[in-house]
Design brief:
Elements lengths: L1 H27 L8 H18 L7 H15 L1 H9 L1 H4 L4 H10 L1 H6 L12 H15 L11 H10 L6 H13 L3 H14 L2 H11 L3 H12 L2 H8 L3 H18 L13 H14 L4 H20 L5 H18 L1 H5 L1 H13 L30 H27 L3 H20 L2 H27 L7 H22 L5 H13 L6 E3 L6 H4 L5 E2 L36 E5 L11 E6 L3 E6 L8 E3 L5 H18 L1 E7 L4 E3 L11 E3 L2 E3 L4 E9 L3 E11 L3 E5 L2 E6 L16 E5 L2 E9 L12 E10 L9 E3 L12 E8 L11
Parallel strand pairs: 1-2, 1-3
Antiparallel strand pairs: 3-5, 4-5, 6-19, 7-18, 7-19, 8-17, 9-10, 10-17, 11-16, 12-15, 12-17, 13-14, 13-16
Helix pairs in contact: 1-2, 1-3, 1-11, 2-3, 2-10, 2-16, 3-10, 6-11, 6-13, 8-9, 8-10, 10-11, 11-15, 12-13, 12-15, 12-23, 13-23, 13-24, 14-24, 15-16, 15-17, 15-23, 16-18, 17-22, 21-23, 21-24, 22-23, 23-24
Length: 806
Amino acid sequence: MFILTVLVYPVVLATLCTGAALLVDRCSGGFVPAALFPAVGAAALIAVSQLTTYIAPIAPATPYVMTAVALAGLLLGWGRVRTLARRWRTWGWQLAAPVLAYGLALAPVLFSGRPAFSSYLVLSDSAVHLLGADFLIRHGQDYARLDLHNSYGRYVNAYYNSAYPSGSDTLFGGSSFLLGLPLIWTFQPFNAFMLATATGPAWVILRRIGLDGAWAVLGALTVTIPALVYGYELIGSVKEITSLPMILTLGALVVVHRRWLRRGPWAAIPFALVAAAGVSAIGAGFGAWALAAALILLAIAIADVLEWRQTPGGVLLLVGTGIAVALVAALPTWVNVSGSLEVTRNIAASPHPGNLATPLHASQVFGTWILDNYKHLPRGGALAATDALIAVTVLACLAGAVYLIRKRRLALSGWLALTLAVWLLAVLYATTWVDAKVLMLSSSVVLLLAWGGVAALRGSRLRLAAPLLALVLAGGVLVSDALQYHGTNLAPTARYEELARVNSLFARGGPALFTDFDEYSLYELRDLDVGGPNFIYAPPALSRGHTRYRAAVELERLPPADLLAYPLIVTRRDPAASRPPSSYRLLWEGAYYQVWGRQPGSQPAVADAKPAGSLADQCAQIGLLAEIARLEGARLLAAPSPELIPVSLAHAVHPARWRRDRQGFAMTTPGSLSARFAVPRAGAWQVWLQGQIMPAVTVAVDGRRLGSIGGQLGGNSLVPNTMTPLPAHLSAGIHRLSVGAEGSTLAPGGGGSMVLFAVFLTPAHGVGREPLRAVAPGRWRSLCARSYQWIEAVRSGPRPRAGAHA
């Protein structure tokens, strides 16, 4: 799976894009530079996938239609392919830029050696894109079929049935379905590939600036992965990452306008397709960047008319063809343009900052940020280094602007100026969330200008300083990216693979209630019609008053009637959590999850209680429930609380620099935590950790190593994540537990989350499978000797069963 997702998939996607670009090139007169093929081909495939998914009955054929388009292009453009192949010595080494960009963008996944995606827990919007891409390819834009009684349907409806931009999703979904690969594992390679396509237009623009050879390769790489862009790629901002190469491609088409602007109306096809792809990917807001490029081209066309190089009719025909192609290519957006504009307005006007606690700093547009998180401000020496590198970049931008004007690169200068004006307008009028997006999309444009400063030095008496400036620009970007690589969190591969197994085992057996909070479960359990009251789009039938958004669902707090619509309940394997009501039995158990099914003919409890307080208080509560059971002709069913041995962290010995994180610790430096605990009897036990652990920690008891735990993260950093247990054979009495954090490594995520919330032990056998106790109302006092998760009053019916199959 790893090789298929990180190597085979991008090669297939590159082939699809190249074939589609060759078809576009053939239709438009054969002028498209080869460096623009990946981006132009992606734009064409976005148009194709938008049209096929708009016509719902043919949506499942989207991967094959994309393949047919690519094959047609390869056949019709085979002559150009042979020409390029014969000249590979002159251009072949230019492939270094996109290959390096792809490798750097995907570095956390590549060096982990497992399918995953990066910056887990930072922004869960990617979960929505997985959900949408899967739905659109399987069902198209047919939202009438959605069941709005559960979270799955409500999410799809809330986003994609409201003109939410889906261009990146349909390209992503169509290309992944072609190979039959899980979208969750192709998501990061897709983002890395789309970012790598930006090196082509960056190369074309840098050549126009005056750089060539290795200078242009290094410049294109730097322009493609500035710190803010790299950060957005790591968190899976697929709409913005898809839009960035489209913005740069528009600039590249402005730069090479002499090759196509006077060729006739069909020459407008590539520009129109790229503009339409940007609109499909990010929404109507992309019109600002398209307009910036179009205004420069219009000014050039008017100048050509005035100089008798073109006729007014020819210009009008060119413009008309471009508009027509753009309308068809982004047809789903234009059909519901009012909805698209409404989405854009809502995003632009929303005061909600998304995952940003504070606005980003305008200086981040200059590509360097010496910190592992773009959302925070560097401190101390890192801040001084960041400020110094930004100052150098500012001076390079000023030198580049002067150089371009003196060299009369007027079209390029005009495009740079208008594109940066889009950013300045966003700074003045946009909200925090939109300003951050525009800042990120403008960073590459700013670095193009800075590399103009390198070209200026190369052409002056200070040419010896050019390599030094290039090193500073590239070095600042690469160091910034390396720090973000080091601090990223990778998604827990094994846990999601287990969810996928649950989906295949119980497909169409739902609806299913999912008690964990993890929005990626909406994709992984897509065939179970999953729902939960902790999702932002909760099922209407579930009582939201009993569960907070993003919190774990506490089943004992849900009224039994709320569960009637759910034949299945999927829970995390967590002894500290309450088991489902008596009407459910354990059907399946894995390393991370349990699946419970409602027993045929079972009835919900007529009343229930969650005894709390002292044993005397609990006994009184049981007595009240027993009276209800007697009146209803019901019996009492009790779920015994499992035996948990907590390890107190309050008095644990730990490094002084470990800061408190609620009841636990953030393990911010190398060191070891040591705490005492006692077990009542000898035997086999399991040691459970709760927290968010990315770099591996070592767990030992009495100096004997039990094992290590790493890469185990939950769906929400604010909710304790119970990890898979470690076995331990212990004697009765007092023992000492140690949890050790090693020093930082170069491994991906070496600086990721290391938060320990709690530690507890349970007996090794029978946890979660304790049989329910059935008691007649008259014998209720027999329940007073111990504590219970819950006690139900249930009318006579099928006897409760216990058991599971793995």
